[in-house]
Amino acid sequence: MTPRLRLQPEALGVGMTSQRVRDRLIERLRGNGITDERVLNAIRVVPRHLFIDEALATRAYEDTALPIGHGQTISQPWVVAKMTEALFDGAQPRRVLEVGTGSGYQAAILGALGLEVFTVERIGDLLRVARKRFRSLGLNVRSKHDDGRVGWPEEAPFDGILVTAGAPALVDALTAQLAPGGVLVAPVGAGGGQSLLRLRKDAEGHITQDTLASVAFVPLLSGLVD
Ligand code: SAH
Questions:
Q1: Measured distance CA(109)–CA(87) in Å, rounded
Q2: Atom of ligand 1 nearest to the CA of 130
Q3: Strands, E, within 106-216: which ranges?
Q4: How high is the pLDDT of residue 190?
Q5: pLDDT > 70: percent of the chain
Q6: Strand partners for 188
Q7: How far is the CA of 203 from the centre of ligand 1 (A)?
Q8: Which atom of ligand 1 is nearest to the CA of 165?
Q9: Domain 65-215 - what CATH class?
Q10: Whose CA is nearest to atom 4 of ligand 1?
Q11: Could you give the CA distance from residue 185 to residue 162 in angstroms, rounded to a whole number?
Q12: How many whole angstroms from its chain centre is CA 29?
């Protein structure tokens, strides 16, 4: 399938953010087991350097998480790739919910793949900056400032749900907003690290679960911050 990438060529950068530097990241992701060409292509074209502070831009195409302020991080590209790939396991998803907008990078990857994206962030400052990025890249991402643990009931059900902050347990309200045939990916675990879990809901609503990787996300927290 040809990916439907909705970015303008002007979004592509130069120098340390050049296509060559990005291609190196893609090869690294391939080497670490990412195989979905649609996902790799989205990571190739979405300018990750625009989702972090300029001072860190030279590190944008390293396969590492980076600080984005407010004690939060933009996820490691491999983790973004793995979570996105997991969404495309079953039927072609159409509507996807992300909990934890952060920099907006994961949402932008989903948007570049032609998905209808809904994303929720509890820190208003981060959300405002992410929204500017969506606008300037011409991405159609709907977002709200809320506690994402309640999901987005008015827009449910979703074919895919990505939780990009770690919690000690799965959040039932989110699983409930998954459509039959849908996939939810969430980092779950107590303490420092989490297991990246993938839940599948079949046509009858039965849930099966497997583990994709060991990960270290910032915590899923309650309450809103301006
Ligand atoms: N997906 C992001 C990664 C963000 S880090 C990216 O691509 O950059 C996790 C984010 O989840 C943080 O911005 C944090 O503020 C947010 N978060 C934590 N708990 C949340 C909650 N209950 N609801 C919404 N967002 C939450």
A1: 12
A2: 8
A3: 116-121, 141-145, 158-163, 178-188, 194-201, 207-215
A4: 87
A5: 92
A6: 167, 195
A7: 30
A8: 9
A9: alpha beta
A10: 102
A11: 5
A12: 16
Query: pLDDT for 131-150, tens place per residue?
Result: 999 999 999 899 999 999 99
Cβ-in-10-Å burial (0-12, 13-18, 19+) of 219 comes to: exposed
In the block, residue with structure tokens 């991080």: 73
Helix (H) or strand (E) holding 85: helix 77-87
Dihedral of the alpha carbons of 128, 129, 133, 139, in degrees to the nearest 10? -30
**Which ligand 1 atom lies nearest to the CA of residue 162?**
1
106 lines ligand 1 (CB under 6 A): yes
Q: Is 187 close to ligand 1, i.e. is its CB under 6 Å away?
A: no
Position 10, amino acid = E
CA distance 223 to 28: 37
The set of catalytic residues is 75
- Structural domain boundaries of the chain? 65-215
Of 166, 207, 210, which is closest to residue 190 (Cα–Cα)?
166
Nearest residue to 160 (alpha-carbon basis) of 145, 139, 177, 148: 177
